[in-house]
Amino acid sequence: MSVTWKKQGVTIFFYHGGNKKFNIDPSFSSARFLSQVELIKGVASLVLDSAQATVGNYSCKVTESNSEGEIKMELKNSSVVSCGDETPEEKCGSWFLLAERVGIVLLMCLLVVLCIVQLSVIGLKYEIESQRKVCTIVALVIFAVVAGVGAALFIPDGYTVQNQAGLGLIVIPAVILVPLQYVMFGIVFDSLLQATLALIGLKLLGFIIAVVGFALCVPACPPLHASVLIAGLAIMAFASLCSLPYVFFMGSRMKDHPRPGKAVEEPLNELQSYVMRI
Fold first, then answer.
1. Handedness of CA 243, 244, 249, 255 (dihedral sign)
2. Predicted confidence band at 84 (pLDDT cuts at 50, 70, 90)?
3. Most buried among 17, 245, 253, 256, using CB within 10 Å?
């Protein structure tokens, strides 16, 4: 039996079974059989180092006695996803599809923008205590900065510790948006209504789903549950989107009709003034 491997018609590897000799092109010095033991079973696959496995048309011809067969194939460059036993630094290829990565980052940006707009609307309609205002702004800025760093680490193609850390910086710190929503509702309403509690609960549910999706995506490449992560972030964005008009319209009503605390304080102040005049 003899085996001849050619690239673009030029012999790069030849094996003669009679004397068990190899003739290998120096440019393809790494060429070897996948398994020489399996050669008698018809397995003549060739293994090359990545640096020498250049793109092009390859052919393999096997001759045995008076019969022969030939197979032709084309080798192309492509992104290879490797998720075996290699270390994370050795893994390559796409973890998430480009559309999925862009969608995750856009949802994160949407969460930040909606939170800023909602805080701005509340600030224009109500007087916010300086300490509460500073704490709210600082918390929002911290989330925006951390999530921005996470996006910068997550967007590049690949499946590395860097990508995983970036996604974690996007998802995990989003928990701060739940108490932040509670604080903003607390500024507008003296007591939280069922609708506000439902919106806070919806945002919390979205965060939990996003964290579960993150936990499922980290060990898998490509991720099998990317939709869970995206759905969680989408639910959080939906809750923020619903909270904005609710604060705006209910805030307008509260502006027209003073808050209960103020309504009680004003008669007491008038009574106190009246007593002092007597």
1. positive
2. very low
3. 17
